[in-house]
Design goal:
The protein has about 180 residues and is of the alpha+beta class. It has 5 helices and 9 strands; from the N terminus they run ααββααββββαβββ. It has one domain. The protein binds zinc ion.
Length: about 180
């Protein structure tokens, strides 16, 4: 339980990092490119993903047709399923479990997009891994789930320190420990 006490701090840090970037809202994202913050706090992990709606559904405004509404609902369902996005791998039979998922994608849910014509979906996931072992790999299933995703810029605050990664469909794994 000790690790959990520090969660609010950790999440505040994430909010600050993402808030700073979102504040430059005028700056358009690049379609096909997502951003992720990954923060390790002992056995707890916080994942924050920001993905252009274009990458998820092919449009960045509220859905208009039944087909678009269906695409939006399907995308929301995938965003709410952490296993469709990311996997922290620990030796079997142990596993990391999802403590919380929060999806923020108001435009997909029908709200008007902000002026400028671009819109993102944001997903915050908190995971709890076993105390006894460190995850060895982080695999981004998001590349399979959303095949328009071509690159993910990752800022990681790991036990080993601050790291940056550029992940692609062909290189979707972060190795945390050398074999
Ligand atoms: Zn866009």
């Amino acid at each position: 339980m000790q690790g959990l006490v520090r969660w609010p701090l950790c999440l505040a840090f994430l909010a600050a990092v993402l808030g700073a970037s979102s504040a430059q809202a005028g700056k358009a994202h690049e379609h096909g490119v997502g951003r992720m913050n990954l923060v390790q706090d002992g056995a707890n992990w916080a994942v924050d993903l920001e993905l252009p709606l274009d990458t998820l559904v092919g449009f960045e405004r509220p859905p208009r047709t039944p087909a678009e509404r269906q695409a939006a609902q399907a995308a929301l369902a995938r965003l709410r399923d952490p296993q469709a996005l990311i996997r922290l791998e620990v030796p079997a039979p142990l596993s990391c479990t999802t403590a919380a998922v929060e999806v923020h994608a108001p435009v997909l849910e029908g709200q008007a997009a902000a002026p400028g014509g671009h819109a993102d979906a944001r997903v915050s996931i908190t995971l709890q891994c076993p105390d006894s072992v460190e995850p060895q790999r982080v695999e981004l299933q998001a590349f399979t789930t959303f095949n328009r995703l071509k690159r993910l810029e990752v800022q990681a605050a790991l036990k080993a320190g601050q790291r940056q990664f550029k992940l692609t469909p062909a290189n979707r794994v972060i190795h945390l420990r050398r074999p």
